[in-house]
Design a protein that fits this description.
two-stranded antiparallel ribbon, 2 domains, 49% helix, alpha+beta, 7 strands, 18% strand, five-stranded mixed beta sheet, Structural Genomics Hypothetical 15.5 Kd Protein In mrcA-pckA Intergenic Region, Chain A, 3 helices
Length: 132
């Protein structure tokens, strides 16, 4: 038997299927539930929005898989929150780096374009009045 730890009050069936890597995307939950039997506490369930709480049991008879839903301890919740905070911090850094790189790239393109325009003006031959 497998266990799945929830860090909030509940998790929806569709989200659990995705996080447990039973399906690849959240959009595939509806199709999966239409084509496969899922037992929620012994009863058939096909609603992807069904809320799963601590102590609930999911069974997938076709795969021989049984998942117990358990609530996280205070220590696990704190650790999970620290991981989420670190992930958010890294995302913010990456976003800032990408923005800075884009600005630098735009400046380089602008400088190259200005330089190109300067040399085009410098290398063109002067035009004299009356000359053809």
């Amino acid at each position: 038997m497998n266990t799945y730890t929830i860090y909030d009050d509940f998790i929806t069936l569709g989200k659990l299927l995705k996080e447990a890597a039973i399906i690849e995307t959240g959009g595939a939950a509806k199709h999966f539930l239409e084509t496969h039997d899922v037992l929620y506490n012994g009863n058939y369930e096909n609603r992807r929005g069904k809320k799963l709480f601590d102590g609930d049991v999911l069974e997938f008879p076709e795969f021989g898989l049984k998942i117990d839903i358990i609530a996280a301890t205070a220590e696990e919740i704190a650790e999970h929150q620290a991981e989420l905070d670190e992930e958010a911090r890294v995302k913010a850094i990456v976003k800032k780096i990408n923005a800075d790189n884009k600005k630098t790239e735009m400046r380089q393109k602008s400088a190259a374009n200005n330089k190109e325009q300067y040399y085009k003006r410098k290398t063109s031959k002067p035009k004299f009045p009356g000359a053809k």
